[in-house]
Amino acid sequence: MRQLLIAALLALAGGCTVATPGYCGAAADCPAGAVCDLLANRCLADTTGCADREDGLRACTGDRAASGVCAGGVIIADRACAADALCRHGWCTPAHEQSCQVDRDCGAEGACGAYRGVSGAARLACGGLVGAGGPAESCAAEAPALACRSGLCDAGRCLQLCVKADDCGASRATCAPATLAFEGVTMTVTRCVP
């Protein structure tokens, strides 16, 4: 009963700020039975299972809108999933299985991003837009998806995949190979860099 009450109160607290109830900047800011979603800075009912998992294992936030890693019995969110995707098995899974190399392969409302497939292997696929940040724009590792189209921040820059420099748009970025680490895996991609 108590967990149901906490979940209901937390659902009402969405979009909170430092001055309002439900805001969190760390797990300690949330009541018992709740976790801090660091991407949205709000407390959520702990349905992640992190309380029973070893540190370092992947998990999904309670609302399945982000993935993260378990640490000290709570989830540390490190990637927000696109609106048309859900977190499954500890990683964001796009709604469509369309492969891509660049954003234009995904249409106006999509972004080509790095995802983990059902098997857990890294792959490139179309996903919905997560943020507005374009190629090589600055982003913060602790809240990458709030800034980047693909929802991925790599080395302080929004990830945008490319085949040639023209794919990087007006940013005057170049296209270069890089190793991308995300959701517990790594893969070599060709991305826009300043």
Structural summary, described in words:
With 194 residues, the protein is mainly β. It is built from 1 helix and 13 strands; from the N terminus they run H-E-E-E-E-E-E-E-E-E-E-E-E-E. It has one helix at 2-12; strands at residues 34-37, 42-45, 58-60, 66-71, 74-80, 86-88, 91-93, 110-116, 122-128, 153-154, 157-158, 174-182, 185-193. The chain has a 3-stranded antiparallel sheet with strand order 3-4-5, with no helix packed on it. The longest helix has 11 residues, at 2-12.
Strand content: 25-35%
State the end-to-end distance. Answer: 53 Å
Shape: elongated
The count of DSSP E runs of length 2 or more, i.e. the number of strands, is 13
Rg from Cα: 17 Å
| Uncertain spans | 1-18
Q: Determine the fraction of residues in helical runs and give it as a percent range.
A: under 10%
- Which class best fits the helix and strand makeup? mainly beta
What integer is the average pLDDT? 76
Major sheet attributes: 3 strands, antiparallel
Helix-strand topology string? HEEEEEEEEEEEEE
Strand order of the largest sheet: 3-4-5
Count of helical stretches = 1
